[in-house]
Write a structure and sequence with these properties.
Blueprint (H helix, E strand, L loop, with lengths): L11 E9 L5 H12 L4 E16 L11 E4 L3 E11 L2 E9 L5 E24 L1 E8 L4 E8 L1
Antiparallel strand pairs: 1-6, 2-3, 2-4, 2-6, 4-5, 5-6, 7-8
Protein name: PPC domain-containing protein
Organism: Penaeus vannamei (Whiteleg shrimp)
Pfam family, one: PCC
Length: 148
């Protein structure tokens, strides 16, 4: 059986370090920063911090339902975040823990509001533009890479 088609590009890397402060919304703040400072897009290298809310799309269930969105309004520690912010859209996933140490996560929809701090390292691949375009196989806008 043949392996699925894989796409990739190599490049050098520029690192951006950010600290978001109480009340800032993470996804919007990242999109605004990238539009100003890294127009070709970035990927999240690492992050940690705390939140007071999160709206996430949860994983598909056994029946294949893929669009369950839930808003959580409580304090969370951010265990990690990954994804891309670029031309055409943002794709972020976050892992959180609550006051009892239970962890969960999902696809970031909106409302990641900083409680005390959010420290984020972003990688900007030089010579590449990160974009998104519709993928008939998944039904979602998926990552595209273009040499610039």
């Amino acid at each position: 059986m043949a392996s699925p088609r894989q796409e990739g590009q190599s490049s050098s890397l520029k690192v951006h370090m950010l600290r978001l402060t109480p009340g800032q919304e993470v996804k919007t703040s990242l999109e605004e920063y990238v539009a100003r400072e890294a127009k070709n897009g970035v990927f999240v290298m690492t992050c940690c911090g705390s939140l007071t809310s999160a709206t996430l799309r949860l994983a598909a269930n056994e029946e294949g339902v893929t669009n369950k969105v839930k808003t959580f309004k409580q304090h969370f520690e951010v265990l990690g975040m990954s994804g891309t912010v670029g031309r055409g859209g943002t794709h972020l996933h976050v892992s959180l823990s609550d006051h009892d140490g239970r962890s969960f996560g999902g696809h970031v929809v909106r409302d990641l509001v900083v409680f005390t701090t959010m420290e984020i390292a972003l990688g900007e691949p030089t010579g590449l533009a990160l974009g998104r375009s519709a993928d008939a196989a998944t039904g979602f806008d998926e990552l595209t890479l273009t040499k610039v």
